[in-house]
Amino acid sequence: MNNSLREYREEKDMTQGDLASAVDVTRQTINSIERGRYNPSLELAFELAAFFECQIEDLFHPETGEDGKG
Question: In angstroms, rounded to a whole number, what is the distance separating the alpha carbons of residues 51 and 43?
Fold first, then answer.
């Protein structure tokens, strides 16, 4: 799953550690999400969207193949 977490975080001039503290996870978790190595739980995705005051779909984007399907 692709995501825009880094862009949202940098727009608020936050470090990964700042964001991690704000949503009560480790900096390594934020790093792994941003690098696409870890998909957050639904609960964490909602927390991140609430923190940035956006929709989950604004932060996370499913990868699609050439046929437009996931």
Answer: 12
Helix (H) or strand (E) holding 11: helix 5-11
pLDDT by position in tens, the chain (length 70)? 899 999 999 999 999 999 999 999 999 999 999 999 999 999 999 999 999 999 999 999 987 755 444 4
Report the distance separating Cα 50 and Cα 28, nearest Å. Answer: 20
Q: Which of 19, 22, 1 has its CA nearest to residue 11? A: 19
Residues 6+ positions from 39 with CB-CB distance below 8 Å: 1, 33
Question: What's the start-to-end Cα distance of the chain, in Å?
Answer: 10
